[in-house]
Structure formats: C-alpha cells, structure tokens
Design goal:
Length: 272
Amino acid sequence: MKAPFEAAGLSDIGRVRTNNEDSFFYDAEKGIFIVADGMGGHNSGEVASAFAVSMVKDFLIQKSPGIGRRISSSDLEAGVKAANSLVYARGRALPKDSGMGTTLVCACGDGETLTLAHVGDSRGYILRRGVLSCLTEDHSVVQEQIRKGLLREEEAAVSELQNLLTRAVGSNPEVEVDVSTHPLFFGDVLLLASDGLTKMVADFRIQEILSLKEDAATLASRLISEALEAGGVDNVTVVVARVQREENKSPWTSPWSKMKSLLRGPNAEASS
C-alpha cells in the first residue's frame, strides 16, 4: 500500500543559540508528524522536547499499527496529555530540570483526514492550491492581547512579551490541548514548525516556498535556509508533508460536472 504522504523533517541550531532545544519526528507511512520547542535552564529545554516527542510518538504508533490508519482526536489528545505528565514528573524529580516545558504541535493523517493537536506557539499550516492557512492559534501573551484588541500584529512582532507562553507541555500537572480535524486532498502540503521559522519568515514567504514544485526534503531545506538568512536567532525546525493519496482528488467539484454525472446516469461508464 502506498504511503499517504511524502514527508521530510529538518532542524537547525540557528546562528545565535549554542544548543538545539527543538525536537521532531515524522513517519510518512503511519501519517504521524510532531514538532516540539523546549524551554528551561541548562539543557532542560532539549530534554523536555525530546521526552514529549518520544512519548507522543510511541503512544500514537501503538494506536496506528497499519499504513495510513486513522488516529482519533481523543487518542491524539490523550497522547499529548501523557507527554505532559511525563515532562512534568521529570521536572519535579530533578532540581536541574525544574520548570522545564515544551511547545508541541502534532498531526496525524490518513491522506483524507488530518487531526491536529497543539500546545504553545509552534504552528501547523496547510497549503492548498497555492493558498496557505494557519491551523493553530498561538498560546502566548501577545496572541491573547491581539485577540482582546490590545495589540496590533505589527506591535506583537516586536513586543518584549512575544516569547511568553500561556500554555506549555510539562509546566503544570494538567494541560489544555487544542484539537481540530481537517479534510485533506491530493497535493495538500502540511507544515509543522517551531517559532524559529515563523518569527523569522513571513507567512507570505512560507506560502511561496511551499508552492514550489519540489519534494518535501527540498522544501524543508529551503524553509530552514530562509530562516537562517533572516538572522537565525533561534533554533528552527520544520516537518513538511505532501498528500499523495489520490482518492478524493479535488476539494471542489463544479455544479456542471455534477449535472453531467446525473444526466449520464449510474451506468454511463459501462455503456460508453
């Protein structure tokens, strides 16, 4: 059976940081994609993100033994909450890891439906017919201020508060997880990214890059390079996946096509 996605992931330390606190995982056959951006003192950020990714990965692989098998939104949410419990317990057990946490964005798809969960400000996007849409809303102080009308988008981009999260995996014993489900169509491109990309590269430029007729590995490399050329002030991580399952090819069928099908009748193919 053909894998529902063609995918690639890439991470870079950036041009300023001395260690990489991002982690990622992808499995194109099982349709599992994860990005995490850790935070905490010493090396705790990379520990938190690695623990979270590993926990969610193992949890979801147990739930999806076959190629392109659909994972429910409740299973995805349960996987993220299990990761939260693990990271929180580790932070409580070792003084050096106290207060550690991580963002987490993960997606599961079978080529026809995508289920996405996130905590923090790592984002999920989908490109369809050249148009980029963000599927997540940052759990951050500046995003809350924007939502309340206290801050404009251009002010948020330079705010000293832009790195303050309102939710993170591992910061508290319980975590609220945003979960959503979306249809997928042949040729759609999924992007999961840490804020090392989204704070350095504007959405319109991300759209231009993902619209290129290149494989997932090349697109991932181009996105990383774009972030580094813009300054690379943070670790940057991306996972790119293109839907290659050909069932349900188009999200839109013209009324005329539907009418022709009705006029021809159910046995049209056999009689033509």
